[in-house]
Amino acid sequence: MNTATVASKVRLDPKKALHASPAFKAASVCRYFIVAAFAFLCAGALSTVAAADAPTPPPAPKGVSNPGDYCTVFLALKVQPALGITADQATKLADLKTKLDEDLKHVGDAQPGEQPPTSRTVGRKARAVVQDYGKQTKALLTADQDAKLQDLFKNQSLKTIVIHTNTSRHRVNGKTTEYSFNVELEYTHYGEEKADAPADKK
Questions:
Q1: Do 153 and 138 form a contact (C-beta atoms < 8 A)?
Q2: CA dist., res. 97 & res. 94, Å (int)
Q3: Which of 52, 102, 170, 184 measures 20 to 30 Å from 199, CA to CA?
Q4: Does the predicted model carry a pTM greater than 0.70?
């Protein structure tokens, strides 16, 4: 066997020799990982877009979100049987309502040196008063009654109290300016035909 013949038998095709080289194999592995990484990133981007396009579920209803909402217990009288309010509690709650009505009549009164009332200042004072009476109402309830009230707000049988205020001014005899204001509590009239009707004006 001459060497020329042997040489002709072991000579490889250039393409096959390239594919068999360690460098080519390493490059192929690198290309594989690059393609796989690119596909993974694309899939992640598509998932992110899909998640962004998905509608956001509405927040779960909460219980009493504002201390003033406890005033609903004595504003909407038909709530009291649902909570199991006792006769003694009912008397105390009626007293709180009377005092609240009286205090709301004076939230717009200007003290000496103060600026005339505005809807903003009257609203701020009214909210503070309602929250104070709400805290007093909460203190009268038992834990079980409080839990029942929370459930009524969670299932939206009751809604948060909204305070509406407005002020006005007018001239008297062309000289003196008089100011007046109005406070209205809008609460859920639980158990009544018009459950969302506003309360009486104060």
A1: no
A2: 5
A3: 170
A4: no
